[in-house]
Specification:
79 residues, mainly alpha, 90% helix, elongated
Length: 79
Amino acid sequence: MSMSARLLEEGGLTLLLGTKLVLVGAVAGLLVLAARRVQPGRNPSQMTFRVALVAVQAATVGLVWVSLNNVALLSSLSS
């Protein structure tokens, strides 16, 4: 059983959305901490932050793609 299905089964939509918000908050907090640690003259520090930021952006684009596919699938089922 997937984690989303388990969360929906145990606590409903509120628990699922709450869990997602907590995860987004944690990632945002980590990026803020990483941004504070970036040192202007240190290339590895800047590169690490850039890689982390691009990874989060890529994951966000992937989630948007999956959400749009789910909407298209659900709307085709109801027709």
